[in-house]
Amino acid sequence: MVKIIKKHRNIFTIPKPFATFVEILPDMADESNKVKQILDQIESLKKQLLSEQNVNRRLNKDLETKDAELKLVLKRLSDLQTENDNLTLAGWLSATDNRRKTAKRRLTEMVQEINKCLALLNQT
Fold it and tell me: What is the pLDDT of residue 106?
């Protein structure tokens, strides 16, 4: 038998099989506190996970929206490039003979100037 003294200094006797249990109680209280802390941490981590998942969902929606916008902009760019090419071709086809002759003469002058520069470079 084990004698236990309480706060009021009363002494009472606990049968031997229960004495071990009473001696373990303070350790169990510490373990109980640790378990409670771990459970609190788990709950906190669950809340954080849910928050991060919500942020992730929002960012994925934003990404999908931006991808759709980008596709529209790229399509518009392609259409404008095609339109520009068509207008350039139409401009060349509708140019008067005088404008064509002027453009050809300018191009010939530029080629001659380039040839002169190359000749000077070859001499040095």
Answer: 82
